[in-house]
Specification:
alpha/beta, two-stranded antiparallel ribbon, 9 helices
């Protein structure tokens, strides 16, 4: 997004590096990266792709099948050599530099995020630290589907859950049950966010639903069908 006299907005798309959730093969849900990538790029944004480990990014095979393999995803993988090369040579995420480097971050889903966006009781992950840094700096954070799982890992400077009182959405309990992975994920995202005091708002399963919390400028989308709406909502806020 550019205007006369202003630099292009810098958007970092954050994707998983994990190819497994326990014994379940997974990775990035490609459409959730491809669609925002083109929305941001087409509006003149400078777009980078980052991941916890850097380098090649695993793709969930389910996102390459049937109707899930959308026009944007197919273009990204099969027709756009620059985009695919950017994904497969992703930059390693450094939470210490995101505030200086980006105007907004956009966290994609795929069940790989349930492995490397969360701490499992250990030290906070770099995705979580990056969210905390951006929110503290009053910069934009967008997240879609399983991307919002990182929000459940974040705290404020006084140690409270970041999402307490925050309007949000994310992959719902009923959607997780429908895909057969409710027993595989470390926790149900909807339940965890509500436990932390978030104002979780559920739309219809498998329909686009995106919301913005105006206080924190955290923008979330519920499912893969929400990636376009979430990206466009983030763009609209960037343009304010």
């Amino acid at each position: 997004m550019t205007t006369e006299g202003k630099k292009a907005a810098r958007v970092g798309i954050i994707v998983t590096s994990a190819d497994k959730l326990g014994d379940h093969a997974t990775g990035l849900w490609l459409e959730e990266c491809a669609t925002p990538y083109y929305i941001f790029s087409d509006e003149g944004c400078e777009v980078s792709i980052l991941s916890p480990l850097g380098g090649a990014v695993p793709i969930d095979a389910g996102s390459l099948a049937g109707d899930f393999y959308t026009t944007e995803a197919k273009k990204f993988k099969e027709e756009d050599e620059k985009a695919w090369d950017t994904l497969q040579n992703s930059t390693k995420l450094d939470p210490a530099t995101v505030v200086a480097d980006f105007d907004a971050l956009f966290f994609c889903g795929g069940h790989g995020t349930a492995t490397d966006f969360i701490s499992n009781g250990g030290e906070k992950t770099n995705p979580a630290l990056a969210v905390e840094a951006m929110v503290a700096a009053k910069k934009l954070v967008g997240l879609v589907c399983h991307g919002p799982i990182v929000l459940a890992e974040c705290t404020t400077t006084d140690g409270k859950p970041l999402m307490e009182g925050v309007l949000c959405t994310g992959f719902s309990n009923t959607e997780e049950v429908a895909v057969g992975l409710a027993e595989k994920v470390p926790y149900l995202l909807q339940s965890r966010l509500k436990e932390q005091g978030a104002n979780y708002e559920k739309g219809n399963d498998w329909e686009a639903h995106a919301v913005r919390d105006k206080e924190t400028n955290i923008i979330t989308g519920q499912n893969p069908q929400s990636s376009e709406a979430t990206a466009r909502l983030l763009l609209s806020v960037l343009g304010e």
